[in-house]
Task: structure prediction
Amino acid sequence: MEPLPGELCAGVPGPGSGTAAAGGLPTPGRGLVRGAGGRGRGPGPARFSSGRGLSSPAAPGSGSAAAAPPGACPPARAKGSGASRAGHRKAKGRPRGRNNPPFLPPEAEEGNIEYKLKLVNPSQYRFEHLVTQMKWRLQEGRGEAVYQIGVEDNGLLVGLSEDELKASLRTLRRMAEKVGADITVLRECNVAYDADLPRRIAEVLIRKVPDDQQFLDLRVAMLGNVDSGKSTLLGVLTQGELDNGRGRARLNLFRHLHEIQSGRTSSISFEILGFNSKGEVVNYSGSQTAEVICENASKMITFIDLAGHHKYLKTTIFGLTSYCPDFAMLVVSANTGIAGTTREHLGLAMALKLPFFIVISKADLCSKGTIERTARQLEAVLKQPGCNKVPLLVTSHHDALTAAHQFSQSASVTPIFTLSSVNGLNLDLLKVFLNVLPPLTNSKEQEELMQQLAEFQVDEIYSVPEVGTVVGGTLYSGICREGERLVVGPTDTGQFLPLSVCSIQRNRSACRVLRAGQAATLALGSFDRALLRKGMVMVSPEMQPTVSSVFEAEIVLLFHTRTVRAGFQVTVHVGNVRQTAIVELIHGKEELRTGEKAVVRFRFIKHPEYLKVGAKLLFRQGVTKGIGLVTKVIPQHSTQ
Result:
């Protein structure tokens, strides 16, 4: 029997186990189900009830994940008995009382999550040590840290009395003031095991915009079938007004007349949603400009609105490969379910190893049974062998917080939201999720990228009156400043041309310095636009870039009706490069069939491109599809 959507909630895989740990975070009044470790981003978030006692694990061999206290609703249960066994293995060797005490994974030295049992009246020396520790956690989270108060370093949820918790939060605020950070209490919940008086624990978000940045920045790509409501959802989130049911909210997002007439996105557009230090939304409501939003926001979500129709698939692939999104939002219409390009977009996210979450839209048009059927469809697809995801249905504020932490820690967790852009159902849960969602890369990786020479990928080219030629794209590595001298290429003959950066804009506001991973537009003054094209790079002259028309890649042929042989033509996507290439040679084989791997030599048919070893590659031709990695670049010639 297929599960109901409420049973989709499941935890992340436990350390060393190949199965899911029990249950997602219950709604208020439900019992606790323990969380599990992540993948190097620090320990998992607390999973506790809101005012109820904690549950104890089920007895060995029982089918349920946890037993709720009297009067509480049963928590969501994990699928299969393997999840339950994994939970029992984790519990071995831990202290037991009348009820089994709840645990989180032990605190990790790296990552942005810190456990503190109590912070009551620390000495001056201890206070300074705590401040230094907070700086480290903020650095690890690139400006964000999560503190679990009332939790021991080994993960035991002890809890504090009301007075102790208030004193600990006062100390935490003093620490945050010392480092210039802001503090937001995400949730406070009761821990009631082996105790006569209720004890409480708190989860607190610390946010500090790094000194060298204006705000924290995340990029989210919008995926989904045509007419699934992607642009309408973006319009509602960024404009602050609900839709009228006929697409009014999406009109400001369209760039072309035919998009307004057809209601279908055909190009790539960008929209911003800001959050201030307290987690409140900062958007265009109240006629605010982009500059005002950037000034007032401490965290910025940049949405990349992509096309859903199959005939614009090349535009969608270009947006995913060139704009380097951190996450993807797959929008599925509740009334049509998985249809059209939904599976194809899901496959693209999987091929690019892009973490994604799912939004079931248009809930106002459907009955509860229809929404449940769509949720069951998604569950079946996500659990297929090629996907191996653990669906986590988000139905409450607590679920949204837990989903944000676990989504960033485990590649297997996929949060699912059910919402409506017309009546506003569950829109607040999506905003809570986006506000708490941490970046995937830590500060060390960011520092390493900034130490390299500047490399800017050219994705868009404009001519702006009184400004001149303007290019848009992403700085892949290094640092770019106003007045910087770079070289751009390769041209059709493989040359690189000198130019200088006149000014920089990010999110429609002026910016003097651009850092690795940030998207922006650069004004190039009187530089001839005719010499530029999409797929070029602007690099430091010291790099001495090499270009190539011939390269080799280790590929997997995902689908083809017959066989691929030498001479077959495909459209190759590598980063911001998109060009037709010919298969020149298949090493060790004469032909390639669906599902087979091989090292293949490609040759671009038009002009040379700038490629790097290790870059992800996608290729397609009609129904033929494949993925791979560039393993060898054969230089054509080197120019400065």
